[in-house]
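ok so i was messing around last nite and threw this chain in just to see what happens. nothing serious, just curious
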Amino acid sequence: MINGLIFDIKRFTVHDGPGIRTTVFFKGCPLRCWWCHNPESQDFKSEQSIRRLILSGKKIEKTETTGILMTVDEVMKEVMLDRMFYEESGGGVTFSGGEPLMQGAFLLDLLTECKRQGLHTALDTSGYASREMISKISQFVDLFLYDLKLMDLEDHKKYTGVDNQGILENLIFLFERGKRIIFRFPVIPGITNTQKNIAKIKDLLRSFNDSGSKAWNLEIDLLPYHTIAREKYHRFKKNNLLQNIQGLTKESMIPLKNELESIGVKVKIGG
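result:
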Protein backbone atom coordinates (compact mmCIF):
# COMPACT_ATOMS: atom_id res chain seq x y z
CA MET A 1 0.00 0.00 0.00
CA ILE A 2 1.34 3.41 -0.99
CA ASN A 3 1.47 6.15 1.62
CA GLY A 4 1.69 9.85 0.91
CA LEU A 5 3.32 12.66 2.88
CA ILE A 6 0.65 15.26 3.62
CA PHE A 7 1.18 18.48 5.55
CA ASP A 8 -2.37 19.83 5.75
CA ILE A 9 -5.98 19.17 4.80
CA LYS A 10 -8.21 22.22 4.74
CA ARG A 11 -11.98 21.91 4.59
CA PHE A 12 -14.43 24.50 3.24
CA THR A 13 -11.94 26.17 0.90
CA VAL A 14 -13.40 28.41 -1.82
CA HIS A 15 -10.32 29.63 -3.72
CA ASP A 16 -8.99 26.36 -5.13
CA GLY A 17 -11.58 25.63 -7.77
CA PRO A 18 -15.37 25.85 -8.08
CA GLY A 19 -17.73 25.52 -5.13
CA ILE A 20 -16.91 24.41 -1.62
CA ARG A 21 -13.86 22.18 -1.59
CA THR A 22 -11.44 20.25 0.54
CA THR A 23 -7.81 20.99 -0.31
CA VAL A 24 -5.20 18.32 0.38
CA PHE A 25 -1.65 19.69 0.64
CA PHE A 26 1.19 17.37 -0.40
CA LYS A 27 4.60 17.86 1.18
CA GLY A 28 7.62 18.05 -1.08
CA CYS A 29 8.37 20.19 -4.13
CA PRO A 30 11.16 20.11 -6.74
CA LEU A 31 10.95 23.90 -7.16
CA ARG A 32 12.37 26.54 -4.86
CA CYS A 33 10.44 29.64 -5.85
CA TRP A 34 11.81 32.74 -4.15
CA TRP A 35 8.26 33.84 -3.26
CA CYS A 36 6.95 30.48 -2.00
CA HIS A 37 4.14 31.11 0.49
CA ASN A 38 4.25 27.53 1.82
CA PRO A 39 7.96 27.07 2.66
CA GLU A 40 7.01 24.24 5.02
CA SER A 41 5.87 22.31 1.95
CA GLN A 42 9.22 22.25 0.17
CA ASP A 43 11.17 19.40 1.79
CA PHE A 44 9.97 15.83 1.28
CA LYS A 45 10.27 14.91 4.94
CA SER A 46 8.48 15.57 8.21
CA GLU A 47 9.73 18.65 10.04
CA GLN A 48 9.37 19.96 13.55
CA SER A 49 8.98 23.60 14.43
CA ILE A 50 8.21 25.64 17.52
CA ARG A 51 5.09 27.77 17.48
CA ARG A 52 5.02 30.57 20.04
CA LEU A 53 1.61 31.47 21.42
CA ILE A 54 0.29 33.89 24.00
CA LEU A 55 -2.59 32.58 26.08
CA SER A 56 -4.03 34.61 28.95
CA GLY A 57 -0.92 36.78 28.89
CA LYS A 58 1.44 33.81 29.15
CA LYS A 59 3.96 32.88 26.48
CA ILE A 60 3.69 29.24 25.46
CA GLU A 61 5.97 27.30 23.14
CA LYS A 62 4.43 24.37 21.32
CA THR A 63 6.37 21.85 19.22
CA GLU A 64 4.55 20.93 16.02
CA THR A 65 5.24 18.28 13.38
CA THR A 66 4.56 19.22 9.77
CA GLY A 67 4.12 16.32 7.38
CA ILE A 68 2.54 12.97 8.22
CA LEU A 69 2.28 9.77 6.25
CA MET A 70 -1.29 8.94 5.30
CA THR A 71 -2.98 6.18 3.34
CA VAL A 72 -5.48 6.77 0.56
CA ASP A 73 -8.25 5.60 2.89
CA GLU A 74 -7.19 8.07 5.60
CA VAL A 75 -7.17 11.00 3.18
CA MET A 76 -10.48 9.96 1.63
CA LYS A 77 -12.07 9.70 5.08
CA GLU A 78 -11.36 13.41 5.57
CA VAL A 79 -12.41 14.33 2.04
CA MET A 80 -15.74 12.52 2.23
CA LEU A 81 -16.82 14.33 5.41
CA ASP A 82 -18.11 17.19 3.27
CA ARG A 83 -19.55 15.35 0.29
CA MET A 84 -22.93 16.97 0.91
CA PHE A 85 -21.38 20.43 0.52
CA TYR A 86 -19.60 19.43 -2.70
CA GLU A 87 -22.88 18.25 -4.21
CA GLU A 88 -24.79 21.37 -3.18
CA SER A 89 -22.14 23.86 -4.35
CA GLY A 90 -20.59 22.12 -7.34
CA GLY A 91 -17.38 21.69 -5.38
CA GLY A 92 -15.02 18.81 -4.77
CA VAL A 93 -11.45 18.06 -3.81
CA THR A 94 -8.27 19.94 -4.79
CA PHE A 95 -4.77 18.50 -4.54
CA SER A 96 -2.13 21.14 -3.86
CA GLY A 97 1.25 21.43 -2.21
CA GLY A 98 4.15 21.53 -2.44
CA GLU A 99 3.87 19.73 -5.74
CA PRO A 100 1.45 16.77 -5.77
CA LEU A 101 3.06 15.35 -8.91
CA MET A 102 6.20 14.72 -6.86
CA GLN A 103 4.20 11.90 -5.25
CA GLY A 104 2.67 10.78 -8.53
CA ALA A 105 1.73 7.20 -7.64
CA PHE A 106 -0.06 8.27 -4.45
CA LEU A 107 -1.78 11.12 -6.28
CA LEU A 108 -2.96 8.74 -8.98
CA ASP A 109 -4.45 6.39 -6.39
CA LEU A 110 -6.27 9.30 -4.72
CA LEU A 111 -7.58 10.64 -8.01
CA THR A 112 -8.80 7.20 -9.02
CA GLU A 113 -10.69 6.82 -5.75
CA CYS A 114 -12.16 10.33 -6.04
CA LYS A 115 -13.55 9.53 -9.48
CA ARG A 116 -14.89 6.22 -8.18
CA GLN A 117 -16.77 8.26 -5.59
CA GLY A 118 -18.01 10.70 -8.25
CA LEU A 119 -16.09 13.72 -6.92
CA HIS A 120 -14.96 16.73 -8.94
CA THR A 121 -11.15 16.88 -8.89
CA ALA A 122 -8.73 19.78 -9.30
CA LEU A 123 -4.94 19.75 -9.33
CA ASP A 124 -2.91 22.82 -8.35
CA THR A 125 0.43 22.24 -10.04
CA SER A 126 3.61 23.79 -11.38
CA GLY A 127 3.47 21.28 -14.24
CA TYR A 128 6.99 20.09 -13.44
CA ALA A 129 6.71 16.34 -14.00
CA SER A 130 7.35 13.67 -16.61
CA ARG A 131 5.06 13.49 -19.63
CA GLU A 132 4.22 9.93 -18.63
CA MET A 133 2.94 11.06 -15.24
CA ILE A 134 1.01 14.01 -16.68
CA SER A 135 -0.64 11.67 -19.17
CA LYS A 136 -1.58 9.12 -16.48
CA ILE A 137 -3.20 11.54 -14.08
CA SER A 138 -4.83 13.81 -16.67
CA GLN A 139 -7.75 11.47 -17.32
CA PHE A 140 -8.78 11.73 -13.64
CA VAL A 141 -8.41 15.53 -13.26
CA ASP A 142 -11.41 17.73 -14.06
CA LEU A 143 -9.57 21.04 -13.61
CA PHE A 144 -5.91 21.99 -13.71
CA LEU A 145 -4.84 25.09 -11.76
CA TYR A 146 -1.64 25.57 -13.73
CA ASP A 147 1.12 27.98 -12.73
CA LEU A 148 2.52 30.46 -15.21
CA LYS A 149 5.53 31.98 -13.48
CA LEU A 150 8.30 33.08 -15.83
CA MET A 151 8.45 32.53 -19.58
CA ASP A 152 12.20 32.99 -20.02
CA LEU A 153 14.03 29.72 -19.40
CA GLU A 154 17.00 31.27 -17.60
CA ASP A 155 14.82 33.53 -15.44
CA HIS A 156 12.67 30.57 -14.52
CA LYS A 157 15.73 28.58 -13.53
CA LYS A 158 17.13 31.47 -11.49
CA TYR A 159 13.99 32.15 -9.48
CA THR A 160 12.54 28.62 -9.16
CA GLY A 161 15.57 26.34 -9.41
CA VAL A 162 14.34 24.48 -12.50
CA ASP A 163 13.89 25.34 -16.17
CA ASN A 164 10.45 25.63 -17.74
CA GLN A 165 10.79 23.67 -20.98
CA GLY A 166 9.01 20.57 -19.71
CA ILE A 167 6.45 22.70 -17.89
CA LEU A 168 5.43 24.50 -21.09
CA GLU A 169 5.46 21.26 -23.10
CA ASN A 170 3.16 19.61 -20.54
CA LEU A 171 0.87 22.63 -20.68
CA ILE A 172 0.54 22.35 -24.45
CA PHE A 173 -0.03 18.60 -24.11
CA LEU A 174 -2.95 19.19 -21.73
CA PHE A 175 -4.35 22.03 -23.82
CA GLU A 176 -4.31 19.98 -27.01
CA ARG A 177 -6.24 17.24 -25.24
CA GLY A 178 -8.95 19.66 -24.26
CA LYS A 179 -8.29 19.60 -20.52
CA ARG A 180 -9.90 22.33 -18.46
CA ILE A 181 -7.19 24.75 -17.29
CA ILE A 182 -7.16 27.90 -15.19
CA PHE A 183 -3.78 29.62 -15.24
CA ARG A 184 -2.31 31.07 -12.06
CA PHE A 185 0.16 33.92 -12.27
CA PRO A 186 2.06 34.91 -9.11
CA VAL A 187 2.70 38.64 -9.47
CA ILE A 188 6.07 39.25 -7.82
CA PRO A 189 7.58 42.77 -7.75
CA GLY A 190 10.61 43.03 -10.01
CA ILE A 191 10.58 39.32 -10.89
CA THR A 192 7.45 38.12 -12.66
CA ASN A 193 5.67 41.44 -13.23
CA THR A 194 8.22 42.79 -15.69
CA GLN A 195 7.09 44.09 -19.08
CA LYS A 196 9.16 41.40 -20.79
CA ASN A 197 7.57 38.54 -18.87
CA ILE A 198 4.02 39.83 -19.14
CA ALA A 199 4.45 40.37 -22.90
CA LYS A 200 5.56 36.74 -23.31
CA ILE A 201 2.66 35.47 -21.22
CA LYS A 202 0.29 37.47 -23.40
CA ASP A 203 1.85 35.89 -26.49
CA LEU A 204 1.30 32.43 -25.04
CA LEU A 205 -2.31 33.17 -24.14
CA ARG A 206 -2.94 34.62 -27.61
CA SER A 207 -1.56 31.46 -29.19
CA PHE A 208 -4.07 29.39 -27.22
CA ASN A 209 -6.90 31.75 -28.09
CA ASP A 210 -5.98 31.66 -31.77
CA SER A 211 -5.70 27.87 -31.95
CA GLY A 212 -9.47 27.40 -31.96
CA SER A 213 -9.03 23.92 -30.45
CA LYS A 214 -10.44 24.56 -27.00
CA ALA A 215 -13.99 24.22 -25.73
CA TRP A 216 -13.60 26.73 -22.89
CA ASN A 217 -12.62 30.35 -22.39
CA LEU A 218 -9.11 31.17 -21.22
CA GLU A 219 -8.94 32.18 -17.56
CA ILE A 220 -6.09 33.42 -15.39
CA ASP A 221 -5.91 34.18 -11.68
CA LEU A 222 -3.57 36.99 -10.66
CA LEU A 223 -1.94 36.17 -7.32
CA PRO A 224 -0.42 39.37 -5.86
CA TYR A 225 2.65 38.83 -3.70
CA HIS A 226 1.95 38.95 0.03
CA THR A 227 4.13 38.79 3.13
CA ILE A 228 1.96 36.47 5.22
CA ALA A 229 4.55 33.66 5.01
CA ARG A 230 7.39 35.60 6.67
CA GLU A 231 6.68 34.07 10.06
CA LYS A 232 6.80 30.59 8.50
CA TYR A 233 10.27 31.20 7.07
CA HIS A 234 11.46 32.17 10.54
CA ARG A 235 9.74 29.25 12.26
CA PHE A 236 11.05 26.65 9.84
CA LYS A 237 14.52 28.25 9.68
CA LYS A 238 14.38 28.81 5.93
CA ASN A 239 16.02 31.67 4.04
CA ASN A 240 13.48 34.24 2.86
CA LEU A 241 15.02 35.77 -0.27
CA LEU A 242 12.24 38.38 -0.49
CA GLN A 243 12.38 39.47 3.13
CA ASN A 244 12.48 43.16 2.23
CA ILE A 245 9.90 43.12 -0.57
CA GLN A 246 6.55 44.72 0.18
CA GLY A 247 3.30 42.98 -0.61
CA LEU A 248 0.99 44.04 -3.43
CA THR A 249 -2.62 45.11 -3.06
CA LYS A 250 -5.52 43.83 -5.12
CA GLU A 251 -6.07 47.37 -6.34
CA SER A 252 -2.56 47.44 -7.82
CA MET A 253 -3.53 44.46 -10.01
CA ILE A 254 -6.26 46.33 -11.88
CA PRO A 255 -4.02 47.69 -14.72
CA LEU A 256 -2.66 44.19 -15.37
CA LYS A 257 -6.17 42.76 -15.20
CA ASN A 258 -7.33 45.26 -17.81
CA GLU A 259 -4.32 44.53 -20.01
CA LEU A 260 -4.99 40.78 -20.03
CA GLU A 261 -8.71 41.21 -20.51
CA SER A 262 -7.98 43.28 -23.60
CA ILE A 263 -6.71 40.12 -25.37
CA GLY A 264 -9.85 38.15 -24.53
CA VAL A 265 -8.80 36.44 -21.31
CA LYS A 266 -11.06 36.16 -18.27
CA VAL A 267 -9.11 37.52 -15.28
CA LYS A 268 -9.67 37.15 -11.55
CA ILE A 269 -7.59 38.81 -8.84
CA GLY A 270 -6.78 36.21 -6.22
CA GLY A 271 -7.13 32.44 -6.38
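not much to say yet. The mean pLDDT is 93.
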